[in-house]
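Note to self: keep these together.
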Amino acid sequence: MKRALLFGYLALGCAVFLPVSVQGQGVSIQRVSTRREVGLAQHLRRIGAKMYSAYWCPFCQRQKELFGREAFSQIDHVECDPKGENARPQLCQAAGVRGYPTWEINGRTYPGLRTLEQLAEISGYK
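Structure:
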C-alpha cells in the first residue's frame, strides 16, 4: 500500500513538473533567436550536422530552446521516436544513437546537451 501511494505521488509530481506533450509532438520553442544563434544554426546545416532527439526528451527541448525558434528551424533535426512527428528512427539506428540529444558533426557523434559555444567550437564556427 505504501509503495503504491509513493508511486502515485511520484507519477503526479512528474505530471505536474514535466512539460506536457501531445503524443508525437514536443513542446513548442518559445524563445526568439539572436542573429548569432541563427548564424550558428545555418553553419551547422551547411556542414551537414544533425541533431538526433526524441519529442518527449526534456534535454532535447532545452537544446532547442538554447537556439530559439528561428535558429532551430534551420537545424537538421532527426526525430528518433517512431511515435514522433516526421520520425526517422532508421537514421538514428544507423548512426548508433543511444541517448538524446546526440549531435553528429563532421562525422563524429557528441551525445548529450551541448552549449551553443561548445557546438560552435566543435563545428569550427567563428
